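Saturday, quiet lab. Running sequence design on the structure tokens for the scaffold JK sent over.
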């Protein structure tokens, strides 16, 4: 069975890069460009992992993650956060997210894919 990864990012370039990299590594990729769409797709498809931009229009990444944590269907899904925030804001974000996985933009695709493989326990 092919593992599904949901990418929620409002930047079409980021979506395209992640889509290609993840598909090359054997994942099925679902794309969402808004928080609402990401939340809907997560609940409908229940992916193995969500890559979630922190700054999104209307619902931001941390709000989406909170709603997913409250839902019995999605509370178990690991999340990798992407952020373009500055260092000071990142420190606040990291303290709020505690032990979650956070990658700063621009993202090192190789490191991100390696982390996705690790989290999903998919062999290279």
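Result came back. Writing it out in full:
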């Amino acid at each position: 069975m092919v593992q599904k990864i949901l990418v929620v990012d409002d930047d079409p370039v980021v979506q395209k890069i992640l889509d290609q990299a993840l598909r090359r590594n054997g994942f099925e990729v679902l794309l969402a460009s808004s928080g609402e769409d990401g939340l809907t797709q997560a609940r409908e498809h229940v992916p193995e992992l969500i890559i979630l931009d922190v700054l999104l229009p209307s619902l931001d990444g941390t709000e989406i993650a909170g709603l997913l944590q409250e839902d019995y269907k999605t509370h178990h899904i690991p999340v990798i956060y992407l952020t373009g925030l500055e260092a000071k804001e990142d420190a606040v974000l990291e303290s709020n997210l505690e032990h979650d996985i956070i990658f700063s933009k621009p993202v090192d695709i190789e490191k991100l894919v390696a982390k996705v493989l690790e989290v999903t326990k998919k062999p290279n």
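Notes for JK: The CA atoms of residues 62 and 97 lie 8 Å apart. The chain has a mean pLDDT of 87. Ask whether to fix the surface positions before the next round.
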